Amino acid sequence: MGDTIHDDTQPTASIEGHVTPGDGFVPLTGSPANLSAVALIEAQAARRPDHIALKQDGRVITYGRFNQQANAVAHGLLALPHGDPALVALVMEHNPEKIIAMSGALKAGMAYAMLNSALGDDDLGELLDHSGARLVVVDRAHHGRVARLVSPGCMVLPIEALLATADRGNPGIATTPRTLSSISYTSGSTGSPKAVARNLGHEMLCIRAMHNMAGLGPEDVVAQLQNLWFTHVFAALIAGATLVLFDLRHGNFSDLGRLLREEAITYYGGMATGFLQFLRTLEDGARFPAMRAVELTGEPVGGEDLALFRRAFAPHCTLIASYTSSEQARMTSLVIDPSARLAPDAVLPVGRAAQDITVSLVDEALRPVPEGEIGEIVVASAFPSLGYWRDPERTAATWVRAPGEDHLLYLTGDMDRQDATGFMQIVGRKDDQIKIRGRLFFSS
């Protein structure tokens, strides 16, 4: 990667722009402690019951129907004879029912564990055991398989049974910002399972930051690929936008291009690697006029990538480079001004800290490093993740309390250098890990 962030004609700070909000955008204000994703989506369902919430392969689910089905799932979970399962594991295809199940669990005051249905039996069985969930909700494609993998006493329940629940009213279950909301498995730093536990306050902090940064409104159409990122899912639904599901595992880049055009997608968020590869397959002149913003994460974005982006999207479309992780779903974002000019070998910095999140660089003793020196990126907020699920030792090594600090610091393991403008440039990893499909092959 090159060291140049900008060319000689433009100062670094001028690469930063802003996203033009979607039609009907209403910013989320107030503390995450006083905001409820469930209540905000219920309000959208009451306000626009006939507006489309979810689309996939010709299927359409309106907000009114989505809310009723999520309510049915919640009441079905609450009525289970063996009592209240605090954690519900989900093994389902990338489909609307999975999002309905996620929402239903939250409405019931329960947490969900999202398990990758594409895993082999050994890996999926390991995650089912590690999660400790006593209830697994499945779709038809995975019922028999999961039934063979679960431990004795674990209940496997088809989503169809929950959707058939007669009670469709809002459950109104009381929760707090500290209520466990989800666990999600990361790629891992060792061969053993590693899952991040989150509470409602943390999720709402990340959802609010994305909603306000992206300016999502009810006229937006948001693409959601196979990795269900809770921030994108719930930020879209809170805004009253339409979420279009697409499983790239069962399609190709040509199918993705058709989806972006035919569904008039206005907002796309995903991993940089796959999307940049998609851009390289496009023919000259391919355009997506409805798109107003593309958010990429997972690896640095450079000047050559920006040139690819400019070739495919209209001048009004904004590129956003975000720095995220499973442990802290939203840390920083750099909204790139459409007029920014970058050298081909430029590497974009990681941008500004998300709303109500503090990002800084520290040395081994957790002391701030001077400007221009390399340090580890640490993140603090009033609502950090709860740590690694069922792994207190790893949690204590990753979330620490610095002397004189009120909040826990999340140690990212990423090394960075900050310049005079406040931008940070990732320079490497603290641990020099090499991972292949989530398994650790080398670490120093």
Describe the structure.
By secondary structure, the protein is an alpha/beta fold. It folds into 2 domains: 12-21 and 202-442, ANL, N-terminal domain (Rossmann fold); 59-174, Rossmann fold (3-Layer(aba) Sandwich), CATH 3.40.50.980. The protein is built from 12 helices and 23 strands. The strands form 4 sheets. It has a 9-stranded mixed beta sheet. A hairpin with a 5-residue loop joins strand 20 and strand 21. The longest helix has 16 residues, at 63-78.
Essential attributes:
single chain; 444 residues; alpha/beta; Rossmann fold; 2 domains; nine-stranded mixed beta sheet; seven-stranded mixed beta sheet; 12 helices; 23 strands; globular; disordered C terminus
- CATH architectural category of the largest domain: 3-Layer(aba) Sandwich
Q: N- to C-terminal separation?
A: 22 Å
Number of strands: 23
Portion of residues within helices: 25-40%
Determine the number of helices (DSSP H or I, runs of at least 4 residues): 12
CATH topology of the largest domain: Rossmann fold
> Beta fraction of the residues?
15-25%
* Average pLDDT metric: 89
Briefly note the structural class of the backbone: alpha/beta
Please describe the topology of this protein.
Elements: H1 37-47, E1 52-56, E2 59-62, H2 63-78, E3 87-91, H3 96-107, E4 111-114, H4 121-131, E5 135-138, H5 143-149, E6 155-158, H6 159-163, E7 180-185, E8 195-199, H7 200-214, E9 221-224, H8 230-238, E10 242-245, H9 253-262, E11 267-271, H10 272-281, E12 293-297, H11 303-312, E13 318-323, E14 332-336, E15 352-353, E16 357-362, E17 374-381, E18 387-388, H12 392-398, E19 399-400, E20 409-418, E21 424-429, E22 434-436, E23 439-442
Parallel strand pairs: 1-10, 3-4, 3-5, 4-7, 5-6, 9-10, 9-11, 11-12, 12-13
Antiparallel strand pairs: 1-2, 7-8, 8-18, 13-14, 14-15, 16-17, 17-20, 19-20, 20-21, 22-23
Helix pairs in contact: 1-2, 1-8, 2-3, 7-8
